[in-house]
């Protein structure tokens, strides 16, 4: 009596594609893959555009903050000058009050601009996949944006 050590079976099947159903399904899958690739590229473009927009807004806000800081220094000097002029009888109390109000207005702008700058920095970090405040040391200082004609 013969001894059987193993059993092997191979099942093979095929289908006659008379109406092109299999070919159309394959073409549909290929088209879906291409659409997914185009969607991925579209997302990359959108993220890149948002990154550029955020960066330019950040640099603009940093420039505004620098100008506001310079204006604060000028307003402080103007107040000292107006107070000195009032003490010496050359100016009126109105000029001193006006200089004081100008200084208060400029000082009030600084926290708002600082908060906006920090928000843009955190948004930029988020778009780059970094933690909040990760970019603070790298882009805290303002560098001028120049346009060439």
What's the order of the H and E elements?
Answer: HHH
Please count the helical segments: 3
Radius of gyration: 34 Å
Structural class of the helix and strand makeup? mainly alpha
Explain what this protein looks like in three dimensions:
Helices cover 71% and strands 0% of the residues. Helix 1 runs antiparallel to helix 2 (93-127). By secondary structure, it is an all-alpha fold. It starts with 20 loop residues before the first helix and ends in a 10-residue tail after the last helix. The protein is rod-shaped and about 115 Å long. It has a domain at 48-129.
Write the layout of secondary structure elements.
Layout: H1 21-87, H2 93-127, H3 136-139
Task: Give a quick precis of the structure.
This protein is mainly α and 149 residues long.
Features:
149 residues, single chain, mainly alpha
